[in-house]
Every structure is written in C-alpha cells, then in structure tokens.
Amino acid sequence: MSDAFSLDPRLEGDSVPLAELALCTVRVMKDARFPWVLMVPRKAGLAEIIDLDAAERAVLIEEIAAVSSALRTVTGCDKLNVGALGNVVRQLHVHVVARFEGDAAWDGPVWGSGAAVAYEPGEREKLAEALLSELRVAGVVSA
Amino acid sequence: MSDAFSLDPRLEGDSVPLAELALCTVRVMKDARFPWVLMVPRKAGLAEIIDLDAAERAVLIEEIAAVSSALRTVTGCDKLNVGALGNVVRQLHVHVVARFEGDAAWDGPVWGSGAAVAYEPGEREKLAEALLSELRVAGVVSA
C-alpha cells in the first residue's frame, strides 16, 4: 500500500513504544528530564489536527485526555503541557508532557530546550509500565 | 457568583477580543511576529484540558479545528502550532499559531521566544476581521 501509515524515523528514534490506542500509537520519549508521551494517529499523510475528520478528532481528544490523566496520576506533576507543533517533523504528532516547577525547562516549553538526557537503566521501563497500567484501567488500550 | 468565569489579567493584557464561541472566548495576541489566536473556555477553575468533561472536550476540539482552519485560510501559513501549556498562567488556554518557515521563532516554539512586537496601526484589526469572517462562515460564532 503506497499510503499505509508509517512512523516518521525521527519520531521513532526519539521514543519507544508504549501502547496502541484506537487512533494513536503512543510512545515514551527517551528523555529523562521530562515524563513525556508522544501520540501519533495511525493514518498516512496527516500534518495537522484539521487533517483528521471530526469523528477522528473526537477520538483524538479523548485519547489525549486518557494519556494526560495517566501521566498526572503516575507522576503527580504540577502541570500538563499538550502540544501539536510539527515544525521539524511534519507527521502529525501530539506531545503530552508532565511538568514540574523547577524542571529542566521550567517555565518555558520543553520543545527546543536543550538536549535529551538518557534514562537510568530500568527507569523508563518503570514509567512505561505504570502508564500502561493506568491506560488499561481507563480501558483505552486496544493492543 | 464566587466562581464565575473571569479572564486572567495577563491573558487579557496580552490579547484583544475576537469572538465568542459556544465554549471559548477567542482573542488575538498582540504580537505582530505571529498570527496567533488564544482560546479560553469560559468556565471558572480550569487549569487542564482534563478539567473539562468529555462533552466539553468534544466542543473544544471542534472549536480548535474551526480556529485552525480560519487561521490557515486567512494567513496561508506553512504550519499550525496548537498548544495548551499554562506553566506561567494557570487558567486553561489554548494557543493556535500560524507559523511560517523562517518566522521569528522558526523552527522552535513561539512560547518563551523573545518579546512581542506591536502591530502596525490597522494590521491587527485587518487580521481580526478576516478571521471573524471565516469563523462566521464556519457557523461557530455565537455572539
């Protein structure tokens, strides 16, 4: 299929798989500075939220809500940051980031804020397992 | 009413009114560097998208879509940036920004990127009138 969905190589390289929801493939960013989840609708040729139809957007916002709730529950963060930018990688992707007062980019945005820091062994897996558990409780994980 | 909605003074100071949609009050940022719209749900006590209920979130995403479409049609931008951060001002607000390759913050985010530049006389009003016209065509302006 010429227009099958495939994840942008840069997004793929910067993150690891977490879960498959009805619309989005959900990944954890390889950056220990911020608990940071990446959501990518599995549909080819998308760049903007408005490239989705209304029914898909309704699913997207509920998947964003589920991921946001999981991230806040797991991390106890002070603030959530949700963003769809795509200035560098054009494939539509939504960031959901747990922010803490005084974190490495506070109170600015995480995007474009210095270099990623690797997780200590096992730490990213621990975050991922806790998030996945919350998403399963929320009933949104389809695979 | 102790919990009536009132716009955060900083958001109010940084922007001017554009339109009232079913859920959000919509404003144009006073920054000529970027065609930039601010959307604030008119409900007291909100900080996160997940502080809205599911029905309100469904309205929010469609209002974001309407504003996004209007902004792209009017500006012919290369990319839309949509973000709900709130690290500085906690009242829930969503930014929709028209981005151009080579603009003052490209390819980074607009948030935290230098000081606002005032519009030339009449330019902001021209943008606002064009956006309002598009939102009226889309049938989302309630007042």
Please provide a written account of the structure:
Two copies of one chain form a homodimer. Helices cover 29% and strands 21% of the residues of chain A. Chain A is built from three helices and five strands. In chain A, strand 1 and strand 2 form a beta hairpin. In chain A, helix 2 crosses helix 3 (123-137). Chain A is globular and about 40 Å long. The mean pLDDT of chain A is 96.
What keyword list fits this structure?
globular, homodimer, 21% strand, HIT family, subunit A, 143 residues, alpha+beta
Summarize, please.
Two copies of one chain form a homodimer. Chain A has 143 residues and is an alpha+beta fold.
Helix content of chain A: 25-40%
Order of helices and strands of chain A: HEEEHEEH
Find the count of extended strands of chain A (DSSP E, 2+ residues).
Answer: 5
Q: Characterize the largest beta sheet of chain A: strand count, sense, and whether it forms a barrel.
A: 5 strands, antiparallel
Low-confidence stretches of chain A: none
In terms of topology, how is this protein built?
The structure is a homodimer of 143-residue chains.
Chain A: H1 9-13, E1 15-20, E2 24-29, E3 36-41, H2 54-75, E4 79-84, E5 94-99, H3 123-137
Helix pairs in contact in A: 2-3
